[in-house]
Amino acid sequence: MRKTLDQLISWTGLILAAVLLVAGGLLTYASSFVSSNVEQQLSQQDITMPKAAALQTQEQKDALLQYAGQKMTTGDQAKAFADHYILVHMNAASDNRTYEDVSGEFMAMSKNPNADQAQVKALGELRQTLFMGNTLRGLLLNAYAFGTMGAIALYAAVGAFIGAAVFLVLGLLGLRHAKTAASFPAVAQRAPATV
Question: pLDDT averaged over the chain?
């Protein structure tokens, strides 16, 4: 009975080791695919991170100085650029108004026949600038999200490989123990002594 239980548990561990090994391989592939795809897509955009002279606030310097002058190739660079460069310029241009705010103002003003056409034109240009900024920010933040998923997949792959190694060792030790348990004869149970 003991031998059968040891074998059953050991083979279960070995199967789990194989499953984790396959999962680790797939996660490694996913991580590699995502990382290379993010790098390729960002490289094609040919965005150069701003140099130190272009950074105005301490917050910008803290986020972007480490990437100054580099070509954008990683999700972390994309997030820093989107949140601390593009957004800062969008907020400065619009006095911290969102695209939705500016677009609403533009729509209302353009329907007013008495509105100053120069103001309508300026508001339309600001609306277009905010639209393009939001679009670029969204694309860059998607690159950041995918880059983060690639990093998580890599950590999960390492965990899967470690788990596979642990289950492999435990399974092999269990099979060895089952073999030794089979070589010992069963101990006969004694009947309790009667008085």
Answer: 90
C-alpha span between 175 and 155 (Å, rounded): 30
Query: Nearest to residue 130, comparing CAs of 149, 109, 112, 106?
Result: 106
Contact 88, 56 (CB under 8 A): yes
Q: Is the dihedral of CA 30, 36, 38, 41 positive or negative?
A: negative
The pLDDT, as a whole number, for residue 114 is: 87
Q: What pLDDT sits at residue 56? A: 85
- Torsion 165-167-173-176 (CA) sign: negative
Integer Cα distance of 85 and 136 in angstroms: 12
In DSSP notation, 100-123 reads HHHHHHHHHHHH-TTS-HHHHHHH
What DSSP state is assigned to residue 151? H
Three-state secondary-structure class, residue 48: strand
Side-chain half-sphere CA neighbours of 20 within 13 A: 18
SS3 71: strand
The domain locations on the chain are 2-183
List, for the chain, all residue ranges whose pLDDT scores fall below the cut of 50.
none
Q: Is 111 exposed, middle or buried (0-12, 13-18, 19+ CB in 10 A)?
A: exposed
The token pair that represents 3 in the structure block: 């031998």
